[in-house]
Design brief:
This protein is mainly α and 80 residues long. The chain has a domain at 38-80. Helix content is 42%, strand content 0%. It has three helices and no strands. The protein has helices spanning 2-21, 39-47, 57-61.
C-alpha cells in the first residue's frame, strides 16, 4: 500500500517536471484601453509627469504617495 502511494507521488512529480520542461520560459501580459480623445491631447497628459496625478490609478489608490521630479517638465530628460 505504501509502495503504491510512493509510486503515485513519484509519477505525479515526474509528470509535472515533464510538463514544465516543455513550456516556454516567457510570460506575456498585455493590457489595452480605448480613449475617446485626440492623440495630441492624450500625449500632453502623459508627456508631463506633473499631470500624472490627474489620471494615474496608483495616485488615486495611495493618497500618501509623493513624487520627486527632476530634469525638464516634459519630453526628453524628464524624470519622476
Amino acid at each position: 500500500m505504501a509502495f503504491r502511494l510512493v509510486v503515485a507521488v513519484a509519477l505525479v512529480v515526474l509528470a509535472i517536471l515533464v510538463i514544465a520542461a516543455f513550456r516556454t520560459g516567457t510570460i506575456q501580459i498585455q493590457r489595452s484601453r480605448s480613449i475617446q480623445a485626440p492623440p495630441d491631447k492624450v500625449f500632453a497628459m502623459i508627456d508631463d509627469f506633473h499631470n500624472w496625478k490627474q489620471w494615474a490609478p496608483q495616485d488615486v489608490e495611495d493618497p500618501t504617495m509623493t513624487r520627486t521630479f527632476s530634469g525638464p517638465e516634459h519630453g526628453l530628460g524628464a524624470a519622476a
